């Protein structure tokens, strides 16, 4: 059943929300909850093979133990406690930046309310960033909303696109594997998820034929009016080429689909050959009539990129070619968003990192290269595991070729095979990775999802995996 | 027309959202927008009677120029930049507090995602606070949601109470004068505002007879199922007695109304004779059957109280006697809320201020007493102005007895009379106060709303007012 993924999610949603404990942890996968417990057990002195739990199942770098950037934290600290700027212990660029940012706040304080929709100066800064990024394609303040994170913006935009009063209900073409809260939002708002499968063998490429197939399959079930794309891919790590983006835009235009483009990983492209190109730039360069007609929303977030501050809740959405009447509804919806002052200020920090010559520049160099080629080599050399190149994004998504014995055993204990693997890995090595079934995957394929953060991850994974394969073959 | 207030709000809502500039400033009243401009004009060297604009129209203390508390800001600064704790320049209690709070965050970082619904430790801290406040009446973690501010929580709760599919639509009994975003939320969600008038002559007391009248007046128009109460009052500054609260609870029970109790000003009671008593405590002490049946939601926020941090977006809602099926819906809705980590940590700071003996205690003493008796004396000694005692809350709401000439002039220039007064005040003295018409007021009565913050406010107001009364009589 094509709508299995959506149905599964709906069910999962209700099930996992019947108890309070689950709710509290609803942003964690079930494995994440167990990881949380193990951490407690370790703290209380339980004896386990490893002394420290490593949780790389989520895209949250700080949860995984990555240290935040001092530049970012220093500026935020001064914004909260401006007296710190008096000491010359903090770099000059930190103090100047904080002063400039405080100037955008009402009463010069990070503790005052922000105008709904965003601080005007920050909106202007976002526009400058976008047109710089897109080699001059203009960006207009009236098309930008600053929000408390990309996820929130996504929900508000979907809110006006999903029509539950009409029959059949609105369908949203959604990648598989996907970012689960995206699917969740569609289902919660009363829409239907129509999965299109990314082509794993081709490095998780998005194929237009598959979009056609997915659209066709929705006939009689729902009315697809939205196409959700994640580029760079999460959790798949692919990066779309300009040509691929052009194809998607043409498809959206032909089928009159609203493009929801999740570009939160735009600053996270690691592979030498790949480059992030925005949908907006490609659309603009395709010229009329497409450049004036294809409706689009693009998302970005301070949870990602070199800053990785998930707890601040800051992001923006830019809208392109959206009908003025729809924009008016959006204004109303967006003004309900309670965006924090520091979340907004952090957008400036993400967009304008220290430059060469600035005192804070040397410390701001990006330290994390998930696509470390050596990692791929190690993974691909193991029996029963294969991994596509990770060109960008936050994760690696290796495929597990599980022996029939392991699949049988999983059935017996009532778990999905990949979840069974992850659960054993967690119990035996205190390493928490995510199960591919949470993101969706082609039937009878199994994956694990993890955020590469240290060699130790690879060591634990390797030793567990070899033993696991032995046990079940 | 009884529903004039709601209709007016709806209209105002759409009007003020047709242009982008208005949206951006939608949390500001129109006067607030003009104040923003004047500030700019002053910065660019415009010659005006006073060199500095004072904006006391909003409840945002930092916008009005109040300095934030160092204790709060120091702890937040350390949370963002833990290295600061190494210096012994910061007080020991600041460093200890920050360390404890960081211990509640995933990965020990304020930059990691929070569990939806709230950080469990912070929820427990909120429960302890509530039962301490209520002399031992218990509070349960499963009834608390941490949210990105009280306003957000209010919208989410209303979301499940307002039924737009049924006819007649849901009515919400709402105080008049009121907190405008509350009314806005009702209208936006498709409900109807049913105003009940507070009794100005009796110090803005809530009278049960008036609740009966309002309920009666809704017949045939809407189906009132919710009663919204603000105690301590905003912008009215009244504080309900235990007896008054008991009456309201009995009324709610009799009429089967869900009680939305906005208690964000619970720490802001200034008058010697008055004391804040929570609805939850009174309900518990009334005993069964009421204590087990009356459904209630109570709100609190870090935007208020001694902390006054509006930009952090932190608050909580506690639910009482809510049906498990409704709670399940709420879990789902609340998990959409994107609450920031620091907003949650700030709740602890609000709830557990430094105690006598702590290094930060002396600086944390409350400096702001809006109900300064001298202020009332001055106001009440002026011709054409009268002000009820301000017992708590964030505002004073003096009544203007405008001469017919002023009302006539306002009509000519197409302004509401109180708005006309405020607009002249702003242009002539760079003092921005709010117009009572924004909060709602009985027909043919006029008020101004302002947050007392300095003697300078009173000086500008006095000199303007005397001249204004002369000009129009
Ligand atoms: C693809 C994708 N979109 C959106 C988000 C959410 O971003 P935010 O934290 O700004 O809500 C994430 C976070 O993991 C993500 O991976
Ligand atoms: C009565 C009342 N309720 C709620 C709020 C909103 O609080 P928050 O900033 O937490 O959304 C305010 C703010 O002014 C208020 O006065």
From TrEMBL, chains A, B:
Keyword terms of this UniProt record: Aminotransferase, Pyridoxal phosphate, Transferase
CC cofactor: pyridoxal 5'-phosphate
MF term (GO), any: pyridoxal phosphate binding
Record domain Aminotransferase class I/classII large: where: 81-403
GO biological process: L-alanine catabolic process
First-level EC class: transferase
Top-rank lineage group of the source organism: Eukaryota
Pathway of action: Amino-acid degradation; L-alanine degradation via transaminase pathway; pyruvate from L-alanine: step 1/1
The EC number(s) this enzyme carries: 2.6.1.2
InterPro entries for the chain: ALAT1/2-like, Aminotransferase_I/II_large, PyrdxlP-dep_Trfase, PyrdxlP-dep_Trfase_major, PyrdxlP-dep_Trfase_small
Reactions mediated catalytically: L-alanine + 2-oxoglutarate = pyruvate + L-glutamate
A matching Pfam family: Aminotran_1_2
Family classification: Belongs to the class-I pyridoxal-phosphate-dependent aminotransferase family. Alanine aminotransferase subfamily.
Assembly mode: Homodimer.
Name this protein carries in UniProt: alanine transaminase
């Amino acid at each position: 059943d094509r709508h299995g993924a959506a149905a599964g999610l709906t069910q999962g949603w209700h099930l996992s929300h019947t108890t309070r404990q689950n709710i509290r942890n609803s942003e964690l996968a079930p494995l994440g909850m167990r990881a949380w417990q193990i951490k407690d057990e370790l703290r209380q002195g339980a004896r386990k093979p490893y002394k420290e739990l490593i949780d790389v199942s989520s895209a949250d770098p700080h949860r995984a133990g990555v240290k935040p950037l001092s530049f970012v934290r220093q500026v935020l600290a001064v914004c909260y406690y401006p007296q710190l700027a008096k000491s010359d212990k903090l770099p000059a660029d930190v103090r100047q930046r904080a002063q400039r940012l405080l100037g955008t706040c009402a009463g010069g304080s990070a503790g005052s309310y922000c105008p709904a929709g965003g601080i005007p100066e920050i909106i202007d800064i976002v526009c400058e960033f976008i047109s710089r990024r897109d080699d001059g394609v203009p960006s207009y303040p009236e098309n930008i909303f600053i929000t408390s994170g990309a996820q929130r913006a996504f929900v508000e935009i979907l809110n006006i696109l999903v029509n539950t009063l009409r029959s059949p209900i609105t369908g949203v073409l959604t990648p598989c594997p996907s970012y689960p809260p995206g699917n969740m939002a569609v289902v919660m708002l009363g829409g239907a998820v129509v999965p299109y499968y990314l082509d794993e063998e081709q490095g998780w490429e998005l194929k237009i034929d598959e979009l056609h197939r997915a659209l066709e399959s929705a006939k009689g079930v729902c009315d697809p009016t939205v196409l959700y794309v994640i580029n760079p891919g999460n959790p798949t790590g692919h990066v779309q080429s300009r040509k691929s983006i052009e194809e998607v835009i043409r498809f959206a235009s032909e089928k009159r689909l609203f493009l929801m483009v999740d570009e939160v990983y735009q600053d996270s492209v690691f592979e030498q050959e790949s480059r992030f190109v925005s949908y907006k730039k490609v659309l603009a360069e395709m010229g009329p009539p497409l450049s004036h007609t294809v409706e689009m929303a693009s998302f970005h977030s301070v949870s990602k990129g070199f800053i990785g501050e998930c707890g601040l809740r800051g992001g923006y959405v830019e809208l392109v070619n959206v009908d003025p009447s729809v924009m008016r509804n959006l204004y109303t919806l967006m003004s309900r968003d309670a965006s924090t002052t520091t979340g907004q200020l952090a957008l400036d920090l993400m967009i304008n990192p220290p430059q060469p010559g600035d005192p804070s520049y040397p410390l701001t160099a990006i330290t994390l290269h998930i696509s470390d080629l050596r990692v791929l080599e190690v993974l691909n050399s193991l029996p029963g595991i294969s991994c596509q190149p990770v060109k960008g994004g936050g994760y690696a998504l290796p495929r597990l070729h599980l022996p029939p014995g392991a699949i049988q055993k999983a059935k017996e204990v009532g778990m999905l095979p990949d979840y069974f693997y992850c659960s054993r890995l967690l119990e035996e090595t205190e390493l928490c990775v995510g199960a591919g079934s949470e993101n969706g995957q082609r039937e009878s394929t199994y994956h694990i999802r993890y955020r590469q953060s240290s060699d130790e991850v690879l060591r634990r994974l390797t030793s567990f995996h070899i033993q696991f394969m032995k046990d079940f073959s």
